[in-house]
């Protein structure tokens, strides 16, 4: 499907997410809709110290930087991945971006032409869907199950439509929270290698896991597709992610890593888009990561302990009578619970009622390329505090009860 400029603009402005973001500026509004971490867990003291040190150290921090990103930060990423993620890349294989969303946008600019087919998970990230639609891609969903994308379905769609690339998030997919098994990762990678189809692997949520495993054990059991492909040596995977979910979204620092030629093409596109992501933010982040007073891996452990508590609270609240007839699979990581509503309940109608009560969630329709998802919603459990989460879920329960009472 191709879109005119007017149609593409309508896609952006008609989204219920814009309304929810406007309403969320009210102090009393509770958002369970957005992809936000907990503000009270931001490492404020480390951020303040880094900002003061970086600005006072040299005025070049306020100058333009390299389009590919601050070299010391790229070197830090390469070293950290080598130690903790079984990924062995050089700094010239990494592009620093303004979040993972821009990484996907830049890839779309240089790799996707109007009419190209892209395979996606079913359902998939609403932000990435917007990018693909704006680029004029034909979006084809691939059905999966609790272990990830089903290989037979991947083969079927490849034979049917010869796609340009496959977009996946094996670690706690947005919105479902599914964690792919190792076998599925190997099978899907093998299929795409044999058919020479590029995989874009989004790992924005991969550090947020609550299964009790250490970071090392988790990576051993669930290596990234990028690592399985030889960290870019196989030329089959572009690995994207960001620090938004683990440090702070406002730093707007993400990355793309992969084949050097593809990265350089994305660097050229970035120069046209905005020349560079914030040099100051990248230097500030690098200072923090190198500081003896801040350990990002310990910080992530803190996040995981608190997010696990909030997830357990949400799962308990979903057992209350108002949610009878709904269904969901409890994730062991990520930021979301994906809920199928009781039969006959429409997510958009429920959202309108919930907004009137002062709470929002993401309607499932935004996670599908076509007119699907009216019976599903995505709930974020990481942003609201425990009291807010309790109140927000109670307000949605009230809205559900009002609808079911009418039927």
Question: What order do the helices and strands come in, and which of them pair?
Answer:
Layout: H1 5-13, H2 16-23, E1 30-31, H3 44-57, H4 71-84, E2 94-97, H5 99-111, E3 117-121, H6 126-134, E4 138-142, E5 144-145, E6 148-149, H7 151-161, E7 165-168, H8 182-195, E8 198-202, H9 215-221, H10 225-228, E9 237-242, E10 254-257, H11 260-273, H12 279-290, H13 296-317, E11 327-328, E12 336-340, H14 347-357, E13 359-360, E14 362-363, E15 376-380, H15 386-406
Parallel strand pairs: 1-13, 3-4, 3-7, 7-8, 8-9
Antiparallel strand pairs: 2-10, 5-6, 9-10, 11-12, 12-15, 14-15
Order of helices and strands: HHEHHEHEHEEEHEHEHHEEHHHEEHEEEH
- The helix fraction, in percent, is 40-55%
Estimated share of beta-strand residues? 5-15%
- State mean pLDDT (0 to 100 scale): 92
Structural class: alpha/beta
Q: What is the CA-atom radius of gyration, in angstroms?
A: 21 Å
Poorly predicted sequence stretches spanning 5 or more consecutive residues: 1-14
Categorize the overall geometry: globular
Q: Strands of the biggest beta sheet: in what spatial order?
A: 2-10-9-8-7-3-4
């Amino acid at each position: 499907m191709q879109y005119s400029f007017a149609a593409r603009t309508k896609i952006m402005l008609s989204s219920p997410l814009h309304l929810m973001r406007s309403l969320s500026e009210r102090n009393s509004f509770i958002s369970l809709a957005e992809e936000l971490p907990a503000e009270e867990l931001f490492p404020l003291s480390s951020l303040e110290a880094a900002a003061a040190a970086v600005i006072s150290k040299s005025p070049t921090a306020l100058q333009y930087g390299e389009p590919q990103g601050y070299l010391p930060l790229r070197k830090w990423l390469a070293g950290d991945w080598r130690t903790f993620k079984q990924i062995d890349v050089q700094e010239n294989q990494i592009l620093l971006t303004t979040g993972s969303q821009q990484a996907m946008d830049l890839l779309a600019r240089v790799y996707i032409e109007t009419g190209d087919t892209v395979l996606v998970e079913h359902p998939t990230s609403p932000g990435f869907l917007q990018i693909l639609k704006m680029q004029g891609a034909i979006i084809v969903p691939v059905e999966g199950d609790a272990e990830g994308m089903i290989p037979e379905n991947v083969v079927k769609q490849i034979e049917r439509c010869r796609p340009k690339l496959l977009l996946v998030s094996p670690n706690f997919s947005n919105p479902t929270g599914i964690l792919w098994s190792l076998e599925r990762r190997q099978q899907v990678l093998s299929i795409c290698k044999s058919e020479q189809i590029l995989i874009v692997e989004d790992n924005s949520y991969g550090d947020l896991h609550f299964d009790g495993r250490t970071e090392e054990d988790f990576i051993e059991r669930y290596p990234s597709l990028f690592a399985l492909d030889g960290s870019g040596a196989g030329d089959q995977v572009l690995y994207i992610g960001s620090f938004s979910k683990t440090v702070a979204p406002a730093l707007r620092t993400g990355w793309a890593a992969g084949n050097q030629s593809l990265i350089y093409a994305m660097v050229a596109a970035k120069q046209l888009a905005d020349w560079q992501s914030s040099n100051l933010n990248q230097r500030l982040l690098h200072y923090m990561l190198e500081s003896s007073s801040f350990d990002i891996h310990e910080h992530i452990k803190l996040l995981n302990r608190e997010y696990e508590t909030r997830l357990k609270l949400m799962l308990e609240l979903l057992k209350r009578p108002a949610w009878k007839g709904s269904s969901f699979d409890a994730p062991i990581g990520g930021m979301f619970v994906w809920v199928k509503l009781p039969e006959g309940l429409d997510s958009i109608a429920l959202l309108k009622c919930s907004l009137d009560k002062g709470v929002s969630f993401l309607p499932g329709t935004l996670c599908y390329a076509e007119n699907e998802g009216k019976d599903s919603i995505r709930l974020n459990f990481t942003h609201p505090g425990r009291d807010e989460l309790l109140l927000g879920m109670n307000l949605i329960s009230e809205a559900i009860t009002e609808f079911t009472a009418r039927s």
